[in-house]
Design a protein that fits this description.
Elements: H1 22-31, H2 34-37, H3 57-78, H4 93-102, H5 111-126, H6 132-143, H7 157-163, H8 181-194, H9 203-226, H10 234-237, H11 240-252, H12 266-287, H13 292-308, E1 311-316, E2 321-328, E3 331-332, H14 334-352, H15 355-375, H16 378-384, H17 387-396, H18 402-411, H19 415-425
Antiparallel strand pairs: 1-2, 2-3
Helix pairs in contact: 1-4, 3-4, 3-9, 4-7, 4-9, 5-15, 5-18, 7-9, 9-13, 9-14, 11-12, 11-14, 12-13, 15-19
C-alpha cells in the first residue's frame, strides 16, 4: 500500500478516472471546487473588488503554488532519497502545488479581521473557536461536495498532510492553531500511519508554509506601492516613526523568536533593509526609464528570486527531523529570515494599519456580527438558511452543533456576498426572490 496516495474515505475510487495520476486528481478536485472559486471574492489585503489590480485570496494562492512548485522541483533534484524513505521526508512538486492551492480555502471573508471576529463570537458565546487553518479541513474533508462522496474532496494523504503546517489538535496543550477535534481524528490517523514525529510537519507542508511567507512578503509590498501606501522615497522609508512601528510589530510577534533577533541591533538592521530596498528600487527605476509599473514587477521578481533561491533543507536535531528554511553554506540563514520578517512587517504597518483599511475592516466586523446575530438562534436561523445547509445540519447534528454550522456558512461567503446578505436582512437593500444564491 502506498501510504502517500491513500485516501481516507474513497475506498472504491468512486467516479474517479483511472487515466490520471492520484495527485492530478487532487489538483482537479481542488481547482474545480466552489470553495476555490470563492477565493476570488475574498480579501488578501485590500478588499476584494477594490480595484482591478490588487491581489485576492485566489491570486495569492496561485502565486504561492507557482513559487512552491518551482522550489520543490529544484530541491527534489538535489535530494538523494531511496524508495524506503519516510513518507514525510519526500518532496513532490505536485503535492506541494496542491497544498499551496488549498492552504487558504478555510479563510472567511474580509481577511484576518473576519477570522478574528468569528473566533471572538464563538468563544465568548459558546466556548468554541474559529481558526482559518482548522477551517481548511472542515472545507476539504466535509463541507465540499463531490459526486459519490459525503466526505469532502477526499484528497490523498500526502496532500492533506502537506496542508497541515500546524500538526496539532486545536486547543490541546494550548495550541492556538491546528485542526478541529472532529477532523483531527482523520489527520492523526494518517500521521500515525506514516509514523510522523509529534509536532513535526512534513517537508512538503514546511515548504508550502515558507513559500506562503515569500509570496506574502513580496507581493503585498508590490500592491502597497501600487496603492501609494508605500512611497519609494527617502522621506518615507527613513522616517523614524515608520522604523519604530516596524520594530514594534516584530517585537509583538512571538512567532519569530527563533530567528536570532537577540544577536543583532534590530533598529540598525531595519534601517539597512529599507535602505537596500530603496537603493535597489532607484537603480531599477532608472533602468526602466522611470516607468514605475515595470519597476514594481522587476522588484517583486528579484525579491521572490532572492528568497526562493535560498530555500534548502537542514537537519533539526532538536526534533530529530528535517527542516525547510533559508540555507547558506549548509547552515540556516538567519539574516535572510530576519530580512523577510522586516519586509513582512513593512507591509503590515503600511497596509493593514492604514486608517482606510481599518475603516474597511471595521465595516466588515459589523457585517459579520450582524450575520451571526441573524443566524445564531436555531428557530429563526433555520428559516433563512439555504435548505441544503439545514439538511447537512440534520445529518450531523450529533457531532456538529448549530453554532459550528453557522460559522461554516458565514466563513464560506465572499466579501461581496456577505455584504449582500447583510443588506437584505437589515433592510438597506431590496432583493428579489428570483436571485439564485
Amino acid at each position: 500500500m502506498n501510504l502517500r496516495k491513500l485516501r481516507l474515505f474513497d475506498t472504491a475510487n468512486t467516479h474517479s478516472s483511472e487515466d490520471r495520476a492520484e495527485y492530478e486528481k487532487d489538483y482537479a478536485r481542488l481547482i474545480q471546487s466552489p470553495a476555490f472559486r470563492r477565493l476570488q471574492g475574498k480579501s488578501q489585503v485590500f478588499g476584494a473588488g477594490t480595484g482591478d489590480y490588487y491581489r485576492t485570496r485566489l491570486t495569492h494562492s496561485l502565486e504561492v503554488s507557482q513559487i512552491a512548485r518551482e522550489v520543490a522541483r529544484r530541491l527534489s533534484k538535489s535530494l538523494s532519497r531511496t524508495n524506503n524513505e519516510h513518507p514525510g521526508l519526500v518532496l513532490n512538486p505536485e503535492v506541494v502545488e496542491c497544498a499551496s492551492l488549498a492552504h487558504d480555502m478555510g479563510h472567511p471573508p474580509f481577511g484576518h479581521r473576519g477570522e478574528e471576529v468569528l473566533n471572538r463570537l464563538l468563544n465568548e458565546e459558546h466556548g468554541m473557536s474559529f481558526e482559518g487553518n482548522a477551517q481548511n479541513y472542515r472545507v476539504l474533508m466535509f463541507l465540499e461536495k463531490r459526486a459519490g462522496s459525503g466526505s469532502g474532496l477526499d484528497l490523498t494523504a500526502a496532500v492533506l498532510l502537506a496542508i497541515n503546517k500546524y500538526p496539532y489538535c486545536l486547543g490541546e496543550q494550548g495550541a492556538a492553531k491546528g485542526v478541529y477535534a472532529t477532523e483531527w481524528e482523520g489527520i492523526r490517523y494518517l500521521r500515525d500511519l506514516w509514523g510522523m514525529p509529534s509536532g513535526c510537519a512534513t517537508l512538503e507542508a514546511q515548504l508550502m508554509d515558507l513559500c506562503d511567507d515569500i509570496a506574502y512578503s513580496t507581493h503585498d509590498i508590490e500592491d502597497g506601492i501600487r496603492a501609494g501606501k508605500i512611497q519609494m522615497n527617502r522621506t518615507f522609508l527613513e522616517d523614524d516613526r515608520l522604523i519604530e512601528h516596524v520594530m514594534q510589530e516584530i517585537i509583538n510577534d512571538h512567532t519569530n523568536g527563533a530567528v536570532g533577533w537577540d544577536q543583532v541591533d534590530m533598529k540598525a538592521m531595519v534601517k539597512m533593509v529599507l535602505e537596500n530596498y530603496l537603493t535597489q528600487w532607484e537603480t531599477i527605476y532608472a533602468a526602466c526609464d522611470g516607468e514605475s509599473s515595470r519597476t514594481r514587477r522587476e522588484m517583486k521578481a528579484r525579491w521572490v528570486s532572492k528568497f526562493a533561491s535560498q530555500v534548502g533543507i537542514i537537519d533539526d536535531p532538536a526534533k530529530g527531523w528535517e527542516r525547510v528554511t533559508f540555507v547558506s553554506d549548509g547552515q540556516e540563514d538567519l539574516e535572510l529570515l530576519r530580512t523577510m520578517e522586516i519586509v513582512k512587517k513593512l507591509a503590515w504597518v503600511t497596509l493593514i494599519k492604514d486608517f482606510r483599511v481599518q475603516r474597511l475592516q471595521t465595516s466588515s466586523e459589523i457585517i459579520i456580527k450582524r450575520l451571526w446575530g441573524s443566524f445564531k438562534d436555531y428557530e429563526t436561523g433555520r428559516l433563512i438558511l439555504p435548505p441544503d445547509w439545514i439538511e447537512t445540519y440534520e445529518q450531523h447534528k450529533s457531532t456538529w452543533p448549530w453554532e459550528r454550522v453557522i460559522a461554516d456558512y458565514i466563513s464560506g461567503m465572499t466579501d461581496s456576498y456577505a455584504g449582500k446578505v447583510c443588506a437584505e436582512l437589515y433592510g438597506s437593500r431590496s432583493g428579489t426572490i428570483y436571485e439564485m444564491d
